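The methods section describes the discrete structure representation at length, but only in general terms. The central task, working out the structure tokens from the amino acid sequence alone, is never made concrete. Nothing conveys this as quickly as seeing an actual entry. For illustration, here is how one protein appears when written out as sequence plus structure tokens:
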Amino acid sequence: MEKINTDCCLTDTRWYGATKQGEYMTQAEAGEREPASIRKGVSVSTYCRTMILGCVIGLLLNPFSQAQRKKGASGQESSNAALAKPIYWGVNAVPMFSDSGKVLFSLSTSWIPGENHKGVLRYKLLVVEEKKKGVDEAEQALSDAKTMMRVSNCHVFLRLLDSDGFVLRKFAVKFTLQVDDQSKLRSLESNDSIQMDAQEYRTLIGDSAASGTWDIEWISTL
């Protein structure tokens, strides 16, 4: 009989081995080299069908996985876009000086993503003096300039609190002088940003039931 120069051959969907020298092995000897699933009685055709079925399922699931990833990325972009919308927090009237009117601070914030998953809180803090009653515009302008200079010489801190009143952040703010069209000092502004992740910002803005708040601390240098 002609020798077979292959490592193994298939007969009746079962594995039968041949040595590299071409000598036939017995079925028992060949079984020692069979895959475990084959030795347990699984036919080669069944084994192949199982492998093919697994590949087909993998190919079918791959587009679904890609769609899920795209959906997740789209949801993240939508969430980031919502956080990027400016929020106006209203006005805090602060009695900084006993010999003058209150100082009005107004705050706006938004959030944008940053590198290495480190987001950025952007804020604008505007400062004006509360308008006095019974004074003309020239006197009010002089009062505004004097008060704004006093505020700019103080150490001012912005505090951000969650809906339960706990401090999330406290940081110093630096102001730039703002003048009107007649070059008269009328207000101050701080337009800056600090590092803050998205979850911390969500804690600040809260939800429809409750949101965080903010206030001002200061140390007078005069």
